[in-house]
Amino acid sequence: MSSTPDLGPVPQRITVDVEQVRRLIADRFPEWAGLPVRPVAKGGWDNFTFRLGDAMVVRLPSAAEYALAVDKEQRWLPALAPRLPLPIPVPLAKGRPGADYPFPWSIYPWLQGEPASADRIADPVRFAVDLAGFLAALQSVDPVDGPQPGKHNWFRGATLRTYDATAQRALTALDGHIDVVTAREIWKTALDTPWDGKDRWFHGDMAPGNLLLDGGELAAVIDFGTCGVGDPSCDMAIAWTLLTADGRQAFRERLSVDEETWARGRGWALWKALVACAQTVDRSDEESVNARRVLYGIFSEYAISCG
């Protein structure tokens, strides 16, 4: 029997509308029933996100698998927040199913900021150092009793081999479009590089949309649905998906990332880039251009590291 976790079938997402959210609020939290409810643009995939008044946000899982993270966030985010140098979402309340919505859900404070992007970051190196400082603090939190990798976070923090099948499908689809020989070499190196087995806290989805900027500086980190304890290399992917070359070096130095963790982190970034490139292989829009930019950045950094 294989020891590689099985991701299982693709989650069956449901839909949620404003009226449902209003009914849920009225039923569970009548003191907030008079507040306006409005959807958040680009509110995420795992959760539907709605503003509740000006100071709160409602997050409702979009599938049963994503709902597994609700209790984890309710339990652990209040414990993590005081130990971290930047604001993170701390639940204000937990909602129950109702109004034809079948899962538990949460209310959080609204954290001000705009999603990070390369053109919005004022100082790429400072941003990288600040981000590394946040992750260093997160990794320093005692991991005892923390949530081990599982379906609640799609096995982030476990072996990268969990994603080998999707990577291989992407490589097949991209044959003739990218340098698949180099991509396969990087991927194999990541798969074959061992983890020391020491549990550390990780965020699990270090993506631009989960990093908020204020005045071009890192101001908050959101969406801890994939957090847990295990191998933190999954959080290294942001070094290739968002940071500049100088920022990437500063990030690695501040976080003191060893060769093995860096190689696995490169693998996480490669997996994301391959899937994105395969999904946009016949397109030339912004998403396609960005996916290839990340992929070629991975190739370039790998070539330098091998030189």
Question: Please, could you describe this protein's structure?
Answer:
By secondary structure, the protein is an alpha+beta fold. 41% of the residues lie in helices and 13% in strands. It has 10 helices and 10 strands. It has a 5-stranded antiparallel sheet. A 3-stranded antiparallel sheet has the order 6-8-9, covered by helices on one side. A two-stranded antiparallel sheet has the order 7-10. It is globular. The mean pLDDT is 97.
Give the uncertain stretches in residue-range form: none
Q: How many angstroms does the end-to-end distance come to?
A: 39 Å
Task: State the shape.
Answer: globular
* Beta-strand percentage range: 5-15%
Instruction: Specify the number of helices.
Output: 10
Defining traits:
10 helices, single chain, 5-stranded antiparallel β-sheet, 307 residues, 3-stranded antiparallel β-sheet, alpha+beta, 10 strands
How do the strands and helices of this protein lay out in sequence?
Layout: H1 18-28, E1 37-39, E2 47-52, E3 56-61, H2 64-67, H3 69-80, E4 93-95, E5 105-109, E6 114-115, H4 124-140, H5 164-174, H6 180-192, E7 200-202, E8 211-214, E9 217-221, E10 228-230, H7 238-241, H8 245-255, H9 259-279, H10 286-306
Antiparallel strand pairs: 1-2, 2-3, 3-5, 4-5, 6-8, 7-10, 8-9
Helix pairs in contact: 4-8, 5-6, 5-9, 6-9, 9-10
